[in-house]
Amino acid sequence: MDAALLLALGLLAQSLGLSLELPGLRKPSTLYPWRRAPALGRVRRAWVIPPISVSENHKRLPYPLVQIKSDKQQLGSVIYSIQGPGVDEEPRGVFSIDKFTGKVSLNAMLDREKTDRFRLRAFALDLGGSALEEPTDLEIVVVDQNDNRPVFRQDVFTGRVLEGAVPGTYVTKAEATDADDPETDNAALRYSILEQGGPQLFSIHEHTGEIRTVQVGLDREVVAVHNLTLQVADMSGDGLTATALAIITLEDVNDNAPAFTRDEFFMEATEAISGVDVGRLQVEDRDLPGSPNWAARFTILEGDPDGQFAIRTDPRTNEGVLSVVKPLDYESCEQYDLKVAVQNEAPLQATAPRAERGQARVHVQVRDVNEAPVFQENPLRTSLAEGAAAGTPVATFAAQDPDTQQLQRLSYSKDYDPEDWLQVDGATGQVQTQRVLSPASPFLKDGWYRAIILVHDNASPPCTATGTLSIEILEVNDHAPELSSPSGSLCSEPDQGAGLVLGAVDEDLPPHGAPFHFQLSPRVPEQARNWSVSQVNVLALPVALVAWSRQRSWDKGLLPGLQDDLRDNILNYDEQGGGEEDQDAYDISQLRHPTGTLGTPLGRPLLRRDAPFGQARPPPPRLLPTSPADIADFINDGLEAADSDPSVPPYDTALIYDYEGGGSVAGTLSSILSSLGDEDQDYTCLRDWGPRFARLADLYGPP
Question: Distance of CA 378 to CAs 375, 381, 547, 703, Å?
Answer without folding.
Answer: 6, 8, 55, 30
